[in-house]
Write a structure and sequence with these properties.
Blueprint (H helix, E strand, L loop, with lengths): L1 H6 L8 H16 L4 H18 L9 H22 L7 E8 L10 E6 H27 L2 H6 L6 H11 L1 H18 L6 H29 L10 H26 L5 H22 L15 H23 L1 H4 L14 H9 L3 H4 L7 H10 L2 H5 L1
Antiparallel strand pairs: 1-2
Helix pairs in contact: 2-3, 2-5, 2-12, 3-5, 3-14, 4-5, 8-9, 10-11, 12-14
């Protein structure tokens, strides 16, 4: 009972890097398959956790934007298949007169006969990419980008600042669209559809740019990106270890991806490269001059989130090695997947645990006081 009160009923913010590890693990699982059952379950897992653990912050409202982007990706993939896609299959749907291209563009087929199998292949490819986009949107909706920046190592101050400003554009755009649309409605402008969207498009872009610049200026005023003076020896150590680390990680990944190379060579090279990178980051972190207050704890809830996100990725990799036919479906001839990978299904079910086994966000005190004031007996009598 005490465990439930501490980790489930308590209210605190989960570390943002834990949510990113969870989301990237699920995105990696989605990238290994085109099985529509697994993609649908992955999408449902992401939506379940987001809707149960997101707050009322501006970045939390940006999740529908990623859903729309995923939908547009599927539609775009279908359109591009009709225009220039490889026309394969046996069940003919319709035919558009093909466009004859010059000889130097041989192999590119513009329009032509569209088959059902080709459309299904294009749809599953779009769903795979769209699910990965939704996973990134889930991480962006659950993790506070400002807390994410504070928890970065000092050596990644400049890069982290640029990345955080980039990923915070979508939440800021969602907040700007909400405020501008509400102000437009209060003024009596009830235009909807394309006309209403066109009226708020430029104000939203302008407000988003202003807020991004204000965020950059505020971070500069607080010392982000500033570096202390370090000796030449530390600079050389940082550069040498960083170069060896990048080289080791690159060579290790190349050998791992090469199926003909032995794993007992790839894994040590990759681990050595990661070690060099960690040493470089630790040495370079001494150049950080800004002080971090109110550090977020890393406890059992964060480990739970990370582990439940990595499990689907491991299950997908294991299943693709043991039974690749259940992960990759060939749609010619047309048929539905014969088997469903149970290991991946179990991994995705485990990935839903953060939706009900992690602490909820703390309540907004200002909003609670306002609600109590509205519902007070004195106000009711008035």
């Amino acid at each position: 009972m005490k465990w439930i009160e501490r980790y489930v009923l308590s209210r605190r913010m989960v570390h943002p890097w834990a949510w990113w590890v969870w989301a990237l693990g699920i995105a990696g699982c989605a990238s290994m398959t085109n099985n529509p059952y697994i993609l649908a379950l992955t999408f449902a897992t992401l939506c379940f956790v987001v809707f149960n653990r997101r707050g009322s912050s501006p970045w939390s409202r940006a999740f529908p934007i990623y859903l729309m982007i995923a939908g547009w990706l599927v539609v775009y993939r279908l359109v591009m298949h009709i225009v220039v896609g490889a026309k394969i299959g046996t069940i003919e749907l319709f035919r558009i007169p093909p466009v004859q291209l010059p000889e130097w563009a041989a192999g590119i087929h513009v329009f032509g006969t569209v088959y059902l199998e080709g459309l299904i292949i294009a749809t599953t490819q779009g769903l795979t990419l769209g699910t990965m986009i939704v996973a990134v949107g889930a991480a962006n909706s659950l993790a506070d980008p400002k807390k994410l920046l504070k928890s970065l190592p000092g050596a990644l101050g400049e890069l982290g600042t640029a990345v955080v400003i980039g990923i915070s554009i979508a939440p800021q755009m969602a907040e700007s669209a909400f405020r501008i649309n509400r102000a437009r409605t209060l003024r009596g402008d009830d235009a909807k559809g394309v006309r209403g969207f066109a009226r708020i498009l430029m104000p939203v872009f302008q407000d988003t740019l202003d807020r991004s610049l204000a965020l950059a200026n505020s971070m500069d005023a607080r010392g982000y990106g500033r570096q202390a003076h370090v000796s030449k020896f530390q600079q050389r150590v940082t550069s040498i270890f960083g170069a060896f680390g990048i080289l080791g990680v690159t060579v290790g990944l190349f050998v791992v991806l090469d199926a003909s190379s032995p794993m007992f060579v790839a894994v040590p090279v990759f681990i050595t490269g990661v070690g060099f990178l960690i040493i470089s980051l630790v040495v370079a972190s001494h150049r950080k001059t800004s002080t971090t207050f109110d550090q977020l704890p890393w406890g059992a809830a964060e480990w739970l989130v990370c582990i439940t996100g990595v499990i689907p990725l491991l299950m997908a990799a294991l299943t693709r090695y043991l039974d690749p036919g259940s992960m990759i479906t060939t749609w010619v001839p047309l048929h539905m997947p014969d088997t469903v990978p149970l290991l991946v299904v179990a991994g995705l079910v485990v990935a839903t645990m953060p939706g009900f086994l992690t602490p909820r966000l703390p309540k907004n005190k200002v909003r609670v006081k306002r609600r109590k004031a509205i519902n007070s007996p004195e106000r009711a009598e008035v």
